[in-house]
Amino acid sequence: MFSQFEAFTESLGADLSGFVIGLVVGLLFGVFAQRSRFCLRSASIELFRGGSGQMLPVWLLAFATAVALTQILMLSGMLDKSRISYINVAGSLSGALLGGALFGIGMILTRGCASRLLVVSASGNARAFLTFILIALVAEESIKGVLAPYRSAVSNFYAIAPSVRDMSLYLPMATGLIVGILLFGMALYLAGRAGLRFSQYVTAIGVGLAVVLGWFLTGLHAKVSFDIISVESLSFIGPSVATIESLSNIGSLKPSFDIGMVPGVFVGALIAALLNRQFEVEFFTEDSGFGRYVVGAFLMGFGGVLAVGCSVGAGVTGVSVLSLTAISSLIMMIVFAGLTDRLVNRS
């Protein structure tokens, strides 16, 4: 398999093979996320309302799968942790905490996180598509535009070294794997109590497998390539910015994992929606509102950059490698999503 993958990357080149890997991982995530209705916002609402719905176990199945299997890759040496930016470059705890809080508020206002909005937009929801574009534009301004100084000020307030960011350095061996297995058991219990169908188990676990596949394939790509390849997996803030920029500079487009992943998710979700006859065009209405989506998109775009990831990028992908900043972001996303739902939707 190793030699075949090496031949594949050599035949396409480092950039194009990275694009294909992103496209494949994105397609799988898009299909599974659309069919399972994977969504941190819905899971957070169920958690805080104390209900026994299906969205929390779906999210937890995906999350636990990603954590447990990614930890197996790392413990076995199949995933080189020295190339993973979530734990090998300095991070910002202040950015993670404030960014996660802002993102959690934003995903309640827009009725979906960045990944969920992209998946739903493929089902014909123009409201979700426009919101996703707004998130990407705000994120771009937060990285190198008018919002960059404010983002930098927050991030620099409490920076932490890689040795602090990588929690595996000061936790007992295999802690991440044990936690992942325990969470998977809890997810199975909740799923059984909520009456999930077999297809929901499969597609929820499939979401987690897509994250693991991203780690595995980009890690393998880095090993066989003479170029410097980023070892990464699913995320929707940085890649959305890269995709927007590539579309505006199509003549100088440089293929990459990120640029392949975003359209891959859209196409995968579109295929799943069409096959299941769930494609329906929707626009803004008087009841849905418009202002809350604009505010929510701004909070998620700015907050996602501060947190160095969205509810998938930081909340699943980053947590799966035991990044302290990612875990902090996820906690804040869940807490502030629950509080915002109580203040906005239940008032």
Explain this structure to me?
With 347 residues, the protein is mainly α. The protein has one domain. The protein has helices at 2-12, 14-36, 40-49, 55-76, 85-88, 93-109, 114-121, 126-144, 148-157, 162-165, 175-194, 198-224, 238-248, 257-275, 291-306, 313-318, 324-345; strands at 91-92, 159-160. A two-stranded antiparallel ribbon has the order 1-2. Helix 7 (114-121) packs across helix 14, helix 8 packs across helix 9 (148-157) and helix 8 packs across helix 15 (291-306). The mean pLDDT is 93.
Structure, briefly:
With 347 residues, this protein is mainly alpha-helical. The protein has 17 helices and two strands. Helix 4 (55-76) runs antiparallel to helix 11, helix 6 crosses helix 9 and helix 8 packs across helix 9.
Write the layout of secondary structure elements.
Elements: H1 2-12, H2 14-36, H3 40-49, H4 55-76, H5 85-88, E1 91-92, H6 93-109, H7 114-121, H8 126-144, H9 148-157, E2 159-160, H10 162-165, H11 175-194, H12 198-224, H13 238-248, H14 257-275, H15 291-306, H16 313-318, H17 324-345
Helix pairs in contact: 1-2, 2-12, 2-14, 3-4, 3-17, 4-11, 4-12, 6-9, 6-15, 6-17, 7-8, 7-14, 8-9, 8-13, 8-15, 13-14
